[in-house]
Amino acid sequence: MTKSALPAHVGIIMDGNGRWAKSRGQVRTAGHLEGLTAAKKVVKAASDMGISYLTLYTFSTENWKRAAEEVGFIMGLVKQYLRGELNFYRENRIRIRHTGDVAGLPPDIAAELKAACDDTRDFEGMQVILALNYGGRDEIVRAVNRALATSAGTGPKPVFTEDRIRQFLDNPDVPDPDLIIRTAGEFRTSNFLLWEGAYAEYFISDKFWPDWTGEDLALAVQDYQSRDRRYGGLAGGIAGV
Ligand code: IPE
Ligand code: IPE
Ligand code: MG
User: Fold this and answer.
1) How far apart are the C-alpha atoms of 212 and 206, rounded to whole Å?
2) Is the minimum distance from the CB of 186 to ligand 2 under 6 angstroms?
3) Contact present, 200 and 193 (Cβ < 8 Å)
4) Predicted model pTM
5) How far apart are CA 18 and CA 36, in angstroms?
6) Which atom of ligand 2 is nearest to the CA of 57?
7) Residue 15 catalytic?
8) What is the pLDDT of residues 184-208, one digit of tens each?
9) How far is the CA of 97 from the centre of ligand 2 (A)?
10) CA nearest 211: which of 7, 8, 24, 11?
11) Is residue 180 packed enough to be buried (19+ CB in 10 Å), middle (13-18) or exposed (0-12)?
C-alpha cells in the first residue's frame, strides 16, 4: 500500500454495539465496552498505517434520546478512554481533538476532554478527532452563529460563502474526510460530517463495531484506493476517457 494513495482523513461511524451485545444475549452496555476495545485496535492500526486524521463518531447530538443509564455508561467509557490511553497517545505521538458542542457535555467529561486535548496538543503524529455530542447540522448552525458574532456591529450585512462558513467549523484546519466508514450495515449518515463529507467515499461494512480490527480498516482503505473520485468532473480530465 503506497502512502500517497492513503486517505489522509478517515471518519468512522462506529455502529452496532447494541446489536453485537444482543446477538450474544448480553446487555447493550457490554457492547459499548467491547466497542472501546475495537476503537483502541483501530486507532493503533490507523496510526501504524500512516493515516493523518481519524474522526470517530462517539456520541451524536441525537444519542441523548437513549436511556439515562446507557448515556451515563458511554460517558463513563469516554472518560476512562481519555484517561487510560494517555501513555499510548504519548508513545505514538497521537494528538486528541474534539468536534461537537462542548457546552452540552457534562462538565467532568468536558474537563477530561480539554485535559487530553491540551496534553497532546504538540504531538505531530496522527490526529484523533472525537466527535462527541456531535451533529453535522448542529456544527453548521454553531459555525454560522460564530461567524455572525464576529461580524456583529453597524457594518454591512455579512455575506456567507462556503469559505467563510468553513472557517468557523469546529476544526477548520482539518482536511475533509476522504473515506467515511459505517459499520453494522446501515446506509445513512446519521448526521455525521454533513459539511465536510460532501465528497467523501463511503464504505459500509456489515460487521458490528465491536468485531472490527485493524485488518477491517486495511480492507476498507484498500477498497477506497480502487475508487475513481471525479468530484463532478470526468475520469481522465475534461474530455473524459
Ligand atoms: C453505536 O452503537 C454506539 C453509539 C451510537 C453511541 P449503537 O449503540 O448504536 O448500537 P446499535 O445500532 O443499537 O446496534
Ligand atoms: C450514529 O449511530 C451515532 C454514533 C455512531 C455515535 P446511531 O446508532 O445513533 O444512528 P441511527 O440511530 O442508527 O441513525
Ligand atoms: Mg446504532
Assistant:
1) 10
2) yes
3) yes
4) 0.96
5) 13
6) 6
7) yes
8) 999 999 999 999 999 999 999 999 9
9) 21
10) 24
11) buried
